[in-house]
Amino acid sequence: MSGNRVTMADVARRAGVSPTTASFALSGRTDMRISEAARSKVLAAAADLGYRPNATARSLRTKSSQTLGFVSDTITTTPFAGEVIRGALDAARAKDHLLFITETGGDRAVESGLVNGLLDRQVDAVIYAAMYTHYVSPPPELHGRRVLLLNCLAPGFDAPSVIPDEIEAGRTAGRALLAAGHAAGIWAIGGHQAIPATPDGIFAGLERMRGLQEVLRDAGARLDGVVECDWNAEDGYREVDRLLAEGHRPRALVCSTDRVSFGAYQALAEAGLSVPQDVSVVSFDDQDIAGWLKPALTTVALPHHELGRKAVELILGDGPLSAETHRVPMPLRKRDSIGPARPTA
Amino acid sequence: MSGNRVTMADVARRAGVSPTTASFALSGRTDMRISEAARSKVLAAAADLGYRPNATARSLRTKSSQTLGFVSDTITTTPFAGEVIRGALDAARAKDHLLFITETGGDRAVESGLVNGLLDRQVDAVIYAAMYTHYVSPPPELHGRRVLLLNCLAPGFDAPSVIPDEIEAGRTAGRALLAAGHAAGIWAIGGHQAIPATPDGIFAGLERMRGLQEVLRDAGARLDGVVECDWNAEDGYREVDRLLAEGHRPRALVCSTDRVSFGAYQALAEAGLSVPQDVSVVSFDDQDIAGWLKPALTTVALPHHELGRKAVELILGDGPLSAETHRVPMPLRKRDSIGPARPTA
DNA sequence: GGCACTTGCTAATCCGATTTAGCGGAGATC
DNA sequence: GATCTCCGCTAAATCGGATTAGCAAGTGCC
């Protein structure tokens, strides 16, 4: 790549000064005395020649590359992914950093190779991210490095974590139902325990359930039932279908994720029940479909963009990093799937 | 970042040879004679010390950074995004390259800044990507550079393009309908012209329509009608709803994208029509929802992963790049939304 | 034994910046 | 007038590798 770039030596020559002077003038450092005349000559020469510093040469000397590494297990397979990276990108750009994105696919050997590749290229810091909130153990190469854990926790590993505030999200969902008058006939559909197929069950499901139950209890209400299942559309359909077939008549559903809600909608529609007149639905994640459904789905959003942004801002901050856990708020997206409670039949 | 890394000088000292010898031994070059004894001493020393070459120092000298820049207007807002990047990542990793991901948001000034940032860091090549296939004009900084255009075309700009084969996709959709016996009552729903709100209408819509009509014509069939609208769920719902209200009774719908199909499903369901018994639906893109819908949607998939993979493979290939257009096949995902044609009422 | 050639290795330079050490000249001090 | 201090700037070293030029010892040949 590249044509013959203009070097600082070229600029210095043209300005009639030494490379040293050019360097100080261009970097604008004040601890070395440069006359205003010399400074402007250098600046003019640099502008004339269209000079751009070679970041590679610079970072060889300074040990800082203005570069970050983003290591994650999977970057596709939404809901995570896109917006997180975009948030990280935005924050990085604000500080003139570029982002290396990598994906390990969950393979330790691949992970190790990629992390080494990043380290070899002198990244200033590494964001170690997981697509579903869970416990991780970062590779040994990262020990002692400037690392931030995104959407994961690593007890014993000295680095800060940034995760969504799932407990508060559970409370938010509960309050949304309570505010509409729902105090009975509430069912939770989805994964709330550690289920093999849904690794996030460990975390998101558990914490959401905790927050939900806490807020219901405080209001003197409670769940009529909890249905355990995976977090896919088909699971939501199957379980709600079964629930209705068994004769239950829920007034409100709290679904683990929008995909489950999607399935729930299908089952409710087939049973001739309408949302939100017959059944209210509140959900989590705020995927695209939440807005497409009819009626549009009220859901507690995963703050993807904010997670990415915050991670980069913390890691590019000045101070040393303390191993604390930052919980990012999950905002409620009010749409049309929660209706007023009706007196129980 | 970084602790005190082991340098090549350390390795040389430990092996009792000169840095030059260490360099040649480690890089495995054969044009310089190194005895087997010396070579293994160096290798052993490197292994003992856990030596890893400093990629920054290397690229300063070699002008190659084993690094690629990925510049796109938007990386979130599926359908593009995730899988494309993953494909690119996979191909890059196979060749020991790391990927800088950037997002311009469509802003020329931002774009220019990011491209310069990439160039400053000595990227070996740049992939200039667009989320919707359309014509672009890459920034001047990229002229004369090793560039590949992904999902876009730039007449007059000397670089290869990689785009999905939309014409053939249109044929594929048409053939799927014909194979099921559909020859009448076929409607196209979506954008097929250059519509402001759907920039891809320029390309994808136009080409898909061309392929579709060609294949229908060849079979002696034709479209009963074409409905122009944007590419969102609500548009599909509204237009199909209106179509039915006007008394039309389509036997098959060809929707511009799965989101439109999603809306079409909603309208058909409300009208008491079932898919595929009453109406067959074939679509494009293969987004996640295609598999969640009931019945699951038959759709012609955008080859996201393959687009990303192919882009990187081409650009990391040896030869010079010729400005040709590579069209990546779009495979048909057969699911359950196309049923056999019934004799027209 | 002398010359050419190969073998195996090293010294020195380069890549393009940053950074440290230090050098002339002007003005101040005694 | 000699010494001291600033000022403004430059020479040279440095970062960690890759690469070029070349040197000493050994081998082959006549």
From TrEMBL, chains A, B:
Key words, A-Z: DNA-binding, Repressor, Transcription, Transcription regulation
GO molecular function terms noted in the UniProt entry: DNA binding
HTH lacI-type domain residues: 6-62
InterPro entries, per the entry: HTH_LacI, LacI/GalR-like_sensor, Lambda_DNA-bd_dom_sf, Peripla_BP_I
Protein's UniProt keywords contain Transcription regulation: yes
Gene3D superfamilies named among the record's database cross-references: 3.40.50.2300, lambda repressor-like DNA-binding domains (1.10.260.40)
PANTHER family linked to this entry: HTH-TYPE TRANSCRIPTIONAL REPRESSOR PURR-RELATED, LACI-RELATED TRANSCRIPTIONAL REPRESSOR
Protein name as annotated: LacI family DNA-binding transcriptional regulator
Organism the protein comes from: Streptomyces rectiviolaceus
